[in-house]
UniProtKB/TrEMBL annotation:
Taxonomic source organism: Candidatus Thiodictyon syntrophicum
Pathway: Cofactor biosynthesis; Fe-Mo cofactor biosynthesis
Entry function: Involved in the biosynthesis of the iron-molybdenum cofactor (FeMo-co or M-cluster) found in the dinitrogenase enzyme of the nitrogenase complex in nitrogen-fixing microorganisms. NifB catalyzes the crucial step of radical SAM-dependent carbide insertion that occurs concomitant with the insertion of a 9th sulfur and the rearrangement/coupling of two [4Fe-4S] clusters into a [8Fe-9S-C] cluster, the precursor to the M-cluster.
SUPFAM superfamilies (UniProt xref): Nitrogenase accessory factor-like, Radical SAM enzymes
Cofactor: [4Fe-4S] cluster
InterPro entries: Aldolase_TIM (IPR013785), Di-Nase_FeMo-co_biosynth (IPR003731), DiNase_FeMo-co_biosyn_sf (IPR036105), MoaA_NifB_PqqE_Fe-S-bd_CS (IPR000385), Nase_CF_NifB (IPR005980), NifB_C (IPR034165), rSAM (IPR007197), rSAM_sf (IPR058240)
Name of the protein described by the UniProt record: FeMo cofactor biosynthesis protein NifB
Amino acid sequence: MALKVIGPGAGAPAAGGCASSGCGGSSDALAHLPEHIRAKVHNHPCYSEEAHHHYARMHVAVAPACNIQCHYCNRKYDCANESRPGVVSEVLTPDQAVKKVMAVAANIPQMTVLGIAGPGDPLANPGRTLDTFRQLSEKAPDIKLCVSTNGLALPETVDELCAHNIDHVTITINCVDPDVGVKIYPWIFWKGRRVKGRKGVAILIEQQQKGLEMLVARGVLVKVNSVLIPGVNDEHLKEVSRVVKAKGAFLHNVMPLIAEPEHGTFYGVMGQRGPTHEELQALQDACAGDMNMMRHCRQCRADAVGMLGEDRGHEFTLDKIETMEIDYGQAMERRRQVHAAIEANREAQRKKSGETFISPASIKRTRKETRPVLMAVATTGGGVINQHFGHAREFLIYEAGAADVRFIGVRKVDLYCAGGDSCGDAQTALAKTIRTLSGCEAVLCSKIGFEPWGQLEAAGIAPNGEHAMEPIEEAVAALYQELAAAGRLEQQAPVAERMRA
Ligand code: CLF
Ligand code: SF4
């Protein structure tokens, strides 16, 4: 039997499932989905992990108001249900937003999805949100439309969303029990008045569940976002996952709480901590038994532009857009060509993956035990290892085992190599990066400098630039074999684990 490369992505089974196989089968992570669902997700960078290596999304910040209060939100910042706090978006009118979307679509042809995710709640601003969608469904029919909401106003908006061809909706559901919810939501604004405490939370939960059921009944793909708040809803999220899955949600995205005192949120000021990488992964794994889990979310801002993990918003400020002449007919033709090239490249990668036979037999001959190994990967997209270690702002984390390779999550880091006179800062950033990669035993990148090489090795993380430009999962599997052949898998535990112990 071959070493399976578990194709990442929405709809891919949890570890142990074989969505893609090195044993000659299809390596398309979406292959098991019905054709009409596959058509909806194959180029949506959030609904398919595989797609996020190739396609981009953008948000337009047209929705400033909100109808609830979350303890992790400060209205100064974007809606933290779909964003990380600490960034603020400039609010656009629907006309400005449409112009911006068409400019981005023409200049970043791999942008396939327009989402509205804030900076408040999109459905608490129905006029602005729906006007933007209505115009775009007419003027740019090749762009998928997507919305993210807290769900309070969802049931009353479902029909209009469907009328504008919005077939991806995210609902943030942090609880299905008002007794848990009162620790997260102090009040909601409902029918012209503020409803506090348990009563308000019960209304919110009822509306979220009703909205979910209505969307599923209409064939809309629903993703559920949940903010993991240790000690508040961590255990409860398993029940949330079970309930929303039973009602037909397509995907569950458990996001870590980000709470810092300087954000001025209730949780930040009260010292509520966010989860560790290990806690987040453990909960995602626990929920995965019931549900397809999203693990590649970047908690992007309400005006994000580009591939997940990058932000090209500065290229499309209002003053720059004003000067752009867009012929959208021509742009659509170019977009079609670019998408065809991307699909050809994906198909070639799948074929290569299907042809690569990685036998664990060689591992078995050399090992006393084959334990799973975490590896960090530096990539700018395209599904290959193509980024310099010092230029990475995030690392994708994969777990390689004797039987499979699976995607685990994303860890963000400060830029280590900024050039110029920033060497002192670089040392601090490097030390932080190495701490962020704790638990990993190897890092794969296109290149790496002498200094970080030494420090990574000293921390028990093997730097590796030998697999530059190779498909990620293939490279991870190959490095696992190399580590096994070098006797590294016979060690009892990586340095990071020993240090924790
Ligand atoms: Fe935007 Fe959200 Fe649509 Fe994606 S983001 S509205 S589903 S197009 Fe994606 Fe960004 Fe995570 Fe959101 S990575 S924060 S899940
Ligand atoms: Fe803030 Fe979003 Fe919650 Fe509204 S729904 S309070 S904008 S995090």
